[in-house]
Amino acid sequence: MSEDFFQGYKGQALEVLKKYNVRVWGQATIETSRGNFVGTVLPRSENDDQHHIVLKIPTGYNVGIDVNNILAMKETGYKKANYKIPEKEFPYTEGLPKVKLIGTGGTIASRLDYRTGAVIPAFSPGELYGAVPELADICNLTTEKVFAVFSENMGPMQYKKLAVAIGKEIENGIDGIVIGHGTDTLHHTAAALTYMVQNPPVPIVLVGSQRSSDRPSSDAALNLMHACYTAGHGDIAEVMVCMFGPTSDDYALLHRGTRVRKMHSSYRSTFRTLGETPLATVTRKGVKPIKTEYNHRRKDRKATIMPYFEEKVAIIYYYPNMMPDMIDSLIENGYKGIIIAGTGLGHVNKPLYPALDRAREAGVAVYMTVQTLWGYVQMFVYETGREMMALGVIPGENLLPEVAYIKLGWALGQTSDLEEVKRIMLTPINDDITPREPYNGYLIYQGGVPEVEEFIRKFRK
Amino acid sequence: MKKKTDALRNYRETMKAIGYVTRKKATQKDYDRIGFMSGLEVHQQLDTRQKLFCRCPCGIYQAPDDYDAEVIRHMRPTLSELGEYDGTALMEFKTRKEIVYRIKNATTCTYEVDDTPPFPINREAVDIAIQISLLKKLNIVGEIHITRKQYLDGSIPTGFQRTAIIGVEGEIELRNKKVRLIQLSLEEDSCREVSDIGHTRIYRTDRLGMPLIETVTYPDMVNPDEVAEACQFIRFLNRSTGKVRTGIGAGRQDVNVSCRGGSRVEIKGVAHIKWIPELTHNEAFRQWALLHIRENLLEKVKKPEAWQMSWQKIDPVYFDFRSKILKNLKEQQMELYAVCLPRFGGILSHFTQPGKVFADEISDRLKVIACIEKPNMTSSEDLKPLENEEVFAKLQKILGGKTDDAIVLFWGPAGDMATALETIEERCRMAFAGVPNDTRKSFADGTTIFERVLPGADRMYPDTDSAPIPLKDEHIERLSKDLPLEAISAYRKMQEWGVPEDTYHYILKKNLFPLLKQMVEELEVEPVFAGTLLGHRLRFVEGHYEVSQGFRYEQVVEILKEIKARGLDREIIKPILPVLVQHPKMDFDSILVSINFKPQKPEEVLSGVRFLKKKYATIGRIQDEEARINWMMGQLRKNAVGNISLNELREALENGKK
């Protein structure tokens, strides 16, 4: 195949480049009605318009030239950029634990993708070592790219693949597993892996970054160090999410895969344990447990891999005036399970009741969770709750809505017997349902309150 | 104490050898001889209500210890778009700095601390930047691309500055030449530093994110005064729009300097334009000195690539140090190292800047790169020796040094020693190559110190968080209809007249130029007098007295006319101004009464001289001629004003002594 000399250019801009015989990566002088410009023609992002040419000027900046203003153009040289993260062989150190990094497409170390203007990940151990050399002091790292998808494109197929890959690594004697993952649905995957990989003998640590590693202030490097430390040296053999505790470059928190949720669209400290305390804190010096009860690291290689998932499951987020056809359409489309994120203690409005009744008749498993995120479903307090239970809606205790969704998919993947599904759903796994909510499980401090302000000032955010 | 004089003498001799002259004595010939070359990067804050990429307010500042929260970051170098690491980035990484940001809720949101992606760019700022670009005859880009410029010093929490080119290839016209402009960019301002001690650097984030433009010139300036003139004019063009901030820190400049055979060195954040001439002068000569050092070294060392220093950890117990700092090393938990620099004899005390020698180049880097606070070293060639010669003689023996070698003794926390040794070796190796590409920090005395390695184009990266912004022809045309062209022609006229530049801003802001013109052209007042009368005196009076609502600027000209008509000395307008602005309806005679003016002939004014001379002989503390005349001027001034010009008075006094 011939080389694409006009990467990303379309329409008018492409015509102009062709007319004057100037290629992407060509050094060009451009005469325009706004004066002359000199620089290297860069590829153009596919989503940008067709009327501009991107030029890197000698000072390193990029500018766009409106093709309508171009009077003449000439290519005076050609130099293609060779963007490569320096690759060094990852050194093996006797005595350090073996850690496997499984890649799914997150941005631990990345480079620019001109086509989309976004960043694409670098991944080989050599590349990672080039970018984060400190890793070599923590563990002996190997990597495997299981697939490359953006976080939002992760789904059941990927969960199953991951679970199987993890099972294989455990069998092969790995000391710990790190999974690089985009952060948007990191907590869905964490829940899925908790259910699909039961009783693992080693830590399974999911990690991502909130700031891509192409920026100096990225959290990626530190997250990766924390995750590798946890996987290689930590004693907690569970599926965990390892991300920044505070927004500062300080320590990470380890969250149980079943109680964790992304709580801010962009903060570094976006992941929080809800309704419980996190498992532990991690620094580069060690893992310090917060919870006293957890599954300890074992020498054996026994883990139960249960890669099942029923895809016809949905979450509906209830809002006032929701119409019954929302539920009817799910029934008609053959959905087998519905998680409702209800208001307050777990409520929906009355007009939905007939639809809920139809769902029960169609054999759809319907579970109630709370959109308040904190607290338990309690459907006995009000008459309406009791009515709903009579219509077959099962209270999901304090399962987080996303976790309930994953669990229902996993349960329905194993059986279509609704009683059995109910047994699975309501049997606590790794604290997805807790018997009690501790006093410090719900802490959302309000800014402005003097004590809180004092706390923030004293203990860096 | 033979050594001691050696260092000082060597300093003086090398200063002479390179042909250093002070700026006062320097002529264009001197600058041509060393190939002086300089360019500017002039920064100017724009006067917008909100910041460039978020909706925080601009121009609200916090005290260093007034903050609501702190955030800590560590910066890591990343690859540029073209796949290279930047030199500065690698240096900053070496420093292992912990950066602390002090955040005040009133001035900073989650954007500034990099916890929220950018909001769409502030269009008000874009428009001001375009207008200023048009004034500078720059070619406006078709589409603004926001770029990330890496800054690993922590001055921006993201580790990069969002910046965008608005125009390229322009020019400005100075008195005698045109200076070409490379580009104008619109960028976000950085944090203000609170402190930088050891491995902790603290910043406050109030200024962070405010819109700033940077005008970059080609290195077209060939002497220090030209640099200042160009800077002055660029600042004026910025201000002429009335849409930029003024006051401390609102305008700052980086000055690039090199000499022939030298390298581009950036003097960063020069706060006052008046500092520029001295700084650029000294920097050009510093480079000239470094080239001389290079020459010396290459003569002595035939294979520079094989040059190597030797070093050893020293136990202070075996030395009888006399300086307090070396006596107390153990208590301070510091380690001590001695380094032998082969063939560096006479190099460490080689002149570099007034009062500074090559050893300072090493010490500066130890502070910045290894984070060891000063004083951090002493050497066998200190201008002011810290230790006896015997100490160095002993060290020389330990290290096996020869007579032509130099010994450096340095100290600091154990964890910083490896970096320190690397730093010393690196700087010495650079001496063989000539002038390192530094970014340097400036001081009021005209000297500079190393701040960091000069960054290159490798620190640029497209901002993946924002889309390009097209600039349509119609929009630019609309903006170009609203340019302050009259102000520019007024500026040129004042420049031609030799009116001091620091008066322009006030004169133009208050629209006083027509009055100035009238004074000069109709009343034949000297332009310098007229300019300073308006730009200094009137400005002072307006700031210090209550100005009546009835006061009109035209009255200043009317008063001058009256003074001329009565044959008074025009100096009298200075005491008149305060009365005039407070009582604009007062007639001229009453004004004269209110300032206690007594009409006297010059002889009458001078009649008291004899008495004053006698008096001074008894009360004067410094009995010299100049002091006496100054004192007498003070005594006579009040009577003289209006009757005799102060210059004439001084002349009369000076002649009187003969």
Description:
The complex is a heterodimer of chains A (461) and B (658). With 461 residues, chain A is α/β, with parallel strands linked by helices. In chain A, helix 3 crosses helix 4 and helix 6 packs parallel to helix 7. The N and C termini of chain A lie far apart (53 Å). Chain A has an 8-stranded mixed β-sheet with strand order 9-6-10-12-13-14-17-18, sandwiched between helices. A 5-stranded antiparallel β-sheet of chain A has the order 4-3-2-1-5. Chain A has 3 domains: 76 residues, Roll (SH3 type barrels), CATH 2.30.30.520; 208 residues, L-asparaginase, N-terminal domain (Rossmann fold); 114 residues, Rossmann fold, CATH 3.40.50. With 658 residues, chain B is of the alpha+beta class. In chain B, strands 1, 4, 6, 7, 8, 11, 12, 13, 20, 21 and 22 form an 11-stranded mixed β-sheet that branches. In chain B, helix 20 packs across helix 21. The longest helix of chain B has 25 residues. Chain B is globular and about 85 Å long. Chains A and B meet through strand 2, strand 3, strand 4 and helix 11 of A and strand 2, strand 4, strand 5, strand 6 and strand 7 of B. Strand 4 of chain A pairs antiparallel with strand 5 of chain B, so a sheet runs across the interface.
